[in-house]
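Here we describe the complex-level prediction in full. Unlike the single-chain runs in Section 2.1, the two entities below were treated as one system.
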Amino acid sequence: MTTDRLIDLLRASRADAWEITDTQTEGWEFYFIRHRLDQNRARNVQHIKLRVFRLLEDGAGMGSATAQIEPTAGEEETRELIDKLTEDARYAVNPPWKLNRPAEVTGTLPAFDLSAMAEAYLTAMRDVPETDTEDLNSYEIFVNRHTERFINSEGIDISQIYPEATLETVVNARNSEREIELYDLHNAGDCDREAVMREVSEMMRYGRDRLCAVPTPPLGTADVLFSTRDAVELYKWFAARMDAAYKYQQLSDWEIGSSYEIREGDPVTLLARACLPGSSGNRLIDAEGAVVRDLVLIDAGVPVRFWGAGQFRSYLGGEDGYLVRNFEVKGGTAAEEELRQGSYLEVVEFSDFSVDDVTGDIAGEIRLGYWHDKGRVTPVTGGSVSGSLRGSAADMRLSSEQRQYDNWVIPHLTRIPGLHVTGIETSGT
Amino acid sequence: MKAEFSPWLASQAAALKELIAQLSSHYDHVSILATDSRGFLVLASQHNRMIDRRTLTTERGVVVRVHRDGLYSEYAFNAEDLADPGAVAARLRTTLDAQLSVLSRVGTGVYDTPAVQDPPLTIFAEMETDGLPEETDPAAVMELLGSYSDRAVSMDERIVECQARVSSTHVNKMFLTAHRDERQSYVFTEASLFVIGSQDGRTEMAYADASDRNGPGIISRLEDQIGDTVKNVLEMLTADRVEPGEYEIITSPEVTGLIAHEAFGHGVEMDMFVKKRALGAEYIGKRVGSDLVTMHEGAACAVDVTSYAFDDEGVPAGDVTEIDRGILKTGICDTLSALRLGCEPTGNGKRQNFEHKVYTRMTNTMFDSGSDTLEEMIASVKKGYLLEGMHSGMEDPKHWGIQCIIARGREIVDGRLTGRVVAPVVMTGYVPDLLGSVSMVSGDRASFGNGACGKGHKEWVKVADGGPYLKARARLG
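The structure predicted for the assembly as a whole is:
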């Protein structure tokens, strides 16, 4: 089934409107144990996503339903599926909204070569400096070229080609008594050899420190400093507060023009960015055909506009957002040295750091932290950090320096006072 | 009724066998997994209605695995014209050779692995189901889910939203080699309620769920859970945080399942043994839990969302006793890891879908039942918590650390529930300490198949886990 033939079938169907996203993906994958090739894989796949819309006769509602059209599907199979979807749409009815219409696309996406990107990652990982006590256990390299065409019944027909790369790395560190590992998942839209080498080297340093780490003391509450990729999870909670779907479904109570509570902390400024260097989120249009551009979402703690799906933005009266992939959080007022004053726990490796996007609850088991106290720095491990951004956002301090993690640019350091720290030497019953 | 095997897959079998024959002149071993799985997802809430004929596991595609010179390679596709197997074979070779050319320039060596044996095997499994997603009326499903959402929200003004959803998939998979022809068809369904409450700027969520290797009829199992789920949210809206420390705990079956999954589920996935990433490899035959701890894993050891007839490498479903009365017996293994370790595969080779690589993955991971009652267990606790509702967990097979984020804890003092609730609860610890402290096990058990499991932070597959109530000691924060 070709996309053009699919459009013909849709025009002859009962659908009042439709959107097609036809994505062809060429993917190369390489799996390593130490530096020996475990397996190589190639993908050559096409996914045609179809969403059809039906308007209620009284105009009070719009139904929609979605499916994948298989590229191997014949005309009869496709026509039957379109019939099912147009029927389904009668039962998934929401208040009506307007689909995106054609708009001028001014940006461009850089050209790239899949094979060259794969070779760059393979070479970078081959050249990672290892020692007798810190080395690579295993790694997996994924590089993709996506060729995407978006068409809708309003007249949009835009194609874009974009890259996507993932590197999973497991590092071992050992001494005479034991061996430990650290894990990292790196996503990007290119291969920044220096960034890859820096991140793997950081993992090896953390591995060395974890070998001599002592149990995390039972601190009760402490200031916690976030200085790694985990901090992105904190800022995703702010982005979720401004997601139109969350707002419409009452999962966010933030209001445009009304600042969230700020006490001693730095107010967050959150931007939607059309393009970030080397980001896997760089696009010309979003998944619904809206042209991407730079926008302010939160300005110094004050919500400015909601972003997200057109359906929910429409309900809130905010028509100028889009489905954002690239975000930037502006730096705060303090230099890094200022945020490193006094006693604090800097956690650089969690088992799994999570921030609940609804409740704001923070949780993570400490694999490696540094307890900075009275001029001494002690590597610690074990126990957990917990708390909630609901209350702690008011006192969050942000460094003026920034760092990029794929599609997020955030303050390099984020300090949150008063989080709960469960240590190994317990104080409970 | 039986879940009928995909006519589309059946129609492609001859061409795929011809593809195997053509590739076999160039490679030592060739296998193919072809998939054609249909389904739907229906969601009803107070603010949104959605019907999608895609689920996590719907797919149609082909993945070819080839072996030559000690190296396994794969090519996945879904748009090739199978009427010309020769053209597909040529594209496969051209693409993989291009990769090998790059690898040669980089100077990459191969993790030398022998060719898999290929004894003849034929399986044709059409499993029983009470309904097929492709024949289910989405209007009726939407109406039922909408009524659940309405009922939950009407129970208390603090309930701001209830999202009711069901996802049902008719799985069809065909595994072919020169000597094997395996075909399976089954239906699994998962349904859930997410109830959200808000009070004084605080928002909390609780959920209820149902899952089975069966049709969409299981949705009705949610109905009896609506009231309790609303009650749980309301309690969580005023819950305190737990005072960090070590406590006596009683885990409800879903939390028991989370422990099973994170503690010794991931810890005995034997592809991790190949990479020396799992401490479990050194503990086979040694004590890792109390005498009350017995744990099974396998597609054949329970009936839930991942109870298939064969895995994605054509290995029949298994039932492995991983821990027998506290002693670690063995792990679970995919085919290539078994070749490298010199053992037998256990039917645990799974892919996210045809586009993804096989890893050793869990299916049903279950603690065995004991003989205690929940009432006896509560009565035995001096100061502790009954832990309910799982949010997430994280494995750490290399160091046997465990992290479980649990929805809420009900305080127990002097053998009685006090009515005080803490939420959420982060449970951490060292796996042998946690399992070694298991001192009571209830006689009932349940499995839970909603949600998905990742390997690291990717490769999402369906799993189920569960067990009885366990009494143990753990660190909470």
